[in-house]
Amino acid sequence: MVYLRTKTVKGEKYLYLVKSIWDSKKNTSKQETIKYLGKASEITKDDIPPDYRNDKKIIAYLSSIDTFSIEEKEELLTKLKTQLYRHLIRGDFDSTKQLYDTYSLASGIPSFFEKILTPVMYQIGDMWAKNRLGIADEHVASNIANTLVKMINSKYTDMPTKKKIVICVPEGEEHNLGANILETHLSSIGHHVYNLTPTEPHDSIVNFIGSTKPDSIIVSITLEDNIKPGQRLVKKIRDRFDVPVYVGGQAIKDDQVRFENAQIIRDTSLKNIAKIITTKK
Ligand code: B12
Prior knowledge:
Methyltransferase, Methionine Synthase (B12-binding Domains), Chain A, domain 1, 5-stranded parallel sheet
């Protein structure tokens, strides 16, 4: 296994390309330096020996450090997205998980969701819309993506809780990967999230809110056709409870869309979403 190791000397980072080798006599692994790459701030991609430039771990690590130009980082991200696209379409969960593990280790889980998984899912949708991808492939891809997000989320079930947050979608909305990503991110920072997605009857959602008394509610809408049902859902909730409701998702990207009694959140990071919905007004 090959990876990059950092040594910090007097505040300056130095990178080494190292190999992990199994020593069967001592029954342990040892590191062997393949190449000393130099000061992290001065390294370019050309410093990496060609054999390792496409290594997933190396790419994941390099795309996370500041020393690479934006163009180089973009190039590395593009490679990772291409790899993920292939893994998802093939239904290859193990490779998907491996890519997630290496990338998130270096760059964090939110970055994986925002920079890799979400754009790849959008690309899959575009390919499907252009008839360049079958519906079965799209299903396989979204199932694998959802399995991964659920698996990441399962790590956080025992965390202490800060706020109670309900996530729901309007009746008829079957898309819920975005909702599951929000659930995972909010759980990872200590909130107790009740994810009612995918579609549930509006009355069940309202009854659930009555019994759990959450601090905030997220309504995620993907299909434009579901904006009206979404508006009805928000009205039903707000007619009964004085709880803040936040609406977001692909359907409301157009800034003409309005919701009474709810705040629309557009184009912002997961970190910022968490801040907005948990800050008391
Ligand atoms: C996977 C998928 C499906 C799966 C969904 C499985 C599942 N469990 O989710 C299945 C196969 C079921 C499906 C069905 C359909 N789909 Co579909 N689907 C997709 C696809 C490829 C990916 C969706 C996804 O997971 N995206 C990635 C997630 C992470 O992104 P996201 O939802 O935008 O979420 C992010 C943000 O928006 C934000 N966010 C989300 N919610 C909220 C809420 C708040 C408050 C905030 C602040 C932020 C926020 O956070 C997330 C993380 O960054 C998209 C393509 C695309 N562009 O997304 C098409 C797409 C959404 N589908 C589409 C269509 C047309 C359909 C069908 C009508 C197809 C059909 N004829 O049957 C049906 C409708 C089913 C239904 N009634 O809902 C269209 C929608 C077009 C439109 N403009 O309305 C798309 C865009 C494909 C396309 N290019 O045409 N689909």
